[in-house]
Design goal:
There is one protein chain. The chain is an alpha+beta fold. It has helices at residues 7-24, 70-73, 79-89, and strands at residues 30-37, 40-47, 93-98, 104-111. The radius of gyration is 15 Å and the shape is globular. It starts with 6 loop residues before the first helix and ends in a 9-residue tail after the last strand.
Length: 120
């Protein structure tokens, strides 16, 4: 698959999502896949861990936000905020689906072609 992305930033997105899946995956399997969907690339990272309460889904992409208490998670609560910012800067979207006790699925979609202002 070919795309027009900032390699280091894309690496940070993948690292943040996989790190979260490991941290909150409760030692269960983690599933990751990359696929082409029309003009976009899609990255899906799914864990089978603790999940995210419905009331936390809206705020987990915010700065210093967590779905669980700091003593259970560690970190600064910036990983998903940074990930969201990077994905949006590359013209993409990120979304999450989750249920407590059933894990979480993060889906990133990025356009494969360069933004119009960079095409020549």
């Amino acid at each position: 698959m070919h795309g027009w992305w900032d390699r280091l930033r894309l690496e940070q997105v993948v690292t943040n999502l996989v790190s979260n899946a490991i941290r909150y995956g409760a030692g269960r399997p983690i599933h990751a896949r990359v696929e082409v969907v029309g003009e976009n690339a899609r990255l899906v990272v799914r864990d089978e861990g603790i999940g995210i309460p419905p009331e936390a889904l809206e705020r987990i992409f915010g700065k210093f936000e967590r779905a669980v208490s700091e003593r259970h998670s560690g970190g600064l609560g910036l990983g998903l905020y940074i990930t969201h910012s990077i994905v949006e800067a590359m013209g993409g979207t990120i979304r999450v689906e989750s249920r407590p006790g059933q894990g979480s699925t993060f889906t990133v979609e990025l356009p494969r072609s360069p933004p119009p202002e960079t095409r020549r």
